[in-house]
Design goal:
The chain has 18 helices and no strands. With 439 residues, it is mainly alpha-helical. The chain is globular.
């Protein structure tokens, strides 16, 4: 990358700081302006709609430090994204023609889509299988899934050489392409998640007579509620398609991917692991949000989810072992190589250990064990996606790719953005059921 000219450098730095600050402060400032004119927002029954008022949130030194760190991370990531779009993807990554898919695809897209699987798993259990006791977990799971897909799309836009052409697969169908099927399903499922989450937004919006008298938001809310089961079914179908098709992409490289991971059954393995990590991400999200928002922990529900996750993990382990045996790849487990070590870490820490922890009911009733086991599953699935997309290719390509620090910073920035968005939505929208409803 050539040396940045002074005007361009000043512009990038200013935008890097300004965009995160506008994102983090702008919405609160807008709400503050609205609250300053409460007569415009009468709630149903004549009362003023309670809106979150602007107030300084730096209540402690730690809170101030955390806010400064978040702004710094967002500023650094935004600046690097701007550099990427000015100078091209080669300016900030270590990717090459020999290794074109790196951290953003393996971690942000493949890992992010897998971690968002809780949306279709929990919604399917509550609404299709009619296990109604899981209803309090549906909205947080859908929000997590929606943000996960949005982060995956954001990573893809940064990674694409020509992101302005991202719309083309929707118009120019290549129905023999697994990658085309993934792209179309992700676009459609993101839309479905928006429709599934829209009633949560409308519940808050419909508290204002000012809005309901002028816009058909109540009718829209009723319409979405009437067809909610249709959206859930479509979401489960689309998720099943693209979660498995992400594995189909790597079926195309039989001579390049290490035999410990290459298999014609990769679509099945990817889907089973997505179900397991979807259950585990719901446990993690519920645990962290209960601490962050000072609400109760749905321990009984999470205990049941952990039990189901144990069964799914054992199924995955059995399918994986049978697949290795059928392909004659079991001797590879005892080779001395980086790939073998990575495989054992993935299977022992990410699959077997949490399966055992969750299998014992007295253990999984402990919140600490629940969180630890779920974190292991998340670690294992992320490592699996990196093993398939990066580490498993090194014997063929050579160790020619190590993510640059700029790739890592952008990944951290996208994750930080997702966390901030989840916190804002959970704080101002009825995402979690009320304590009396849960009781």
């Amino acid at each position: 990358m050539d040396m940045l000219s002074l005007p361009l450098l000043v512009g990038i730095v200013a935008a890097s700081v300004g965009i995160p600050v506008v994102f983090m402060v702008g919405m609160r400032g807008l709400v503050f302006r609205i609250v300053g004119r409460p007569a415009l927002w009468p709630a149903a029954g004549g009362e003023v709609l309670p809106l979150p008022a602007w107030r300084p949130r730096l209540t402690s030194r730690w809170h101030a430090l955390r806010t400064v760190l978040m702004v710094a991370v967002m500023a650094a990531g935004t600046g690097l994204v701007l550099v990427r779009f000015v100078y091209g993807i080669g300016a900030i990554t270590n990717l090459s023609d020999q290794f074109p898919l790196g951290l953003w695809i393996g971690l942000d897209v493949m890992g992010g889509v897998a971690l968002a699987a809780g949306a279709f798993v929990i919604a399917g259990m509550a609404h299709i299988l009619r296990i109604e006791r899981f209803e309090p977990l549906v909205r947080p799971a859908i929000l997590t899934g929606l943000l996960g897909y949005m982060m995956a799309v954001a990573s893809l836009l940064v990674d694409l050489g020509r992101p302005y052409n991202v719309w083309r697969p929707l118009a120019h169908w290549q129905h023999r392409s697994a990658l085309w099927e993934v792209g179309v399903c992700v676009a459609c499922y993101t839309t479905v998640l928006l429709l599934e989450f829209l009633p949560v937004v409308l519940e808050r919006v419909n508290e204002s007579d000012f809005i309901t008298r002028r816009l058909p938001t109540v009718a829209l809310y009723r319409f979405l509620g009437r067809f909610s089961i249709v959206f859930v079914i479509i979401g489960v179908v689309l998720s099943t398609l693209h979660q498995s098709s992400l594995g189909s992409l790597w079926v195309l490289v039989p001579t390049k991917l290490h035999p410990l991971w290459y298999s014609i059954r990769l679509p099945i393995l990817f889907w089973i692991s997505a179900v397991a990590v979807g259950l585990s991400m719901t446990i993690i999200e519920s645990t962290l949000s209960s601490k962050a928002f000072k609400r109760g922990l749905e321990l009984d529900l999470l205990t049941d989810l952990a039990g189901y996750a144990s069964v799914v993990l054992l199924i995955y382990l059995a399918v994986k072992a049978a697949d290795l045996a059928a392909r004659g790849a079991l001797p590879l487990l005892f080779e001395t190589s980086f790939q073998t070590v990575s495989f054992w870490v993935e299977m022992m820490i990410g699959v077997l250990a949490p399966a055992v922890l969750f299998a014992v009911k007295s253990w999984r009733r402990k919140p600490g064990v629940l969180f630890a086991g779920a974190s292991m599953v998340v670690f294992g699935v992320i490592l699996n996606r990196l093993n398939v997309s990066m580490i498993g290719l090194f014997p063929y390509t050579g160790n020619i790719y190590v993510p640059s620090w700029m790739e890592i910073v952008i990944t951290i920035t996208i994750v930080t953005l997702g966390v901030l968005a989840f916190g804002a939505a959970a704080e101002h929208l009825p995402v979690f059921s009320r304590e009396e409803d849960h009781a």
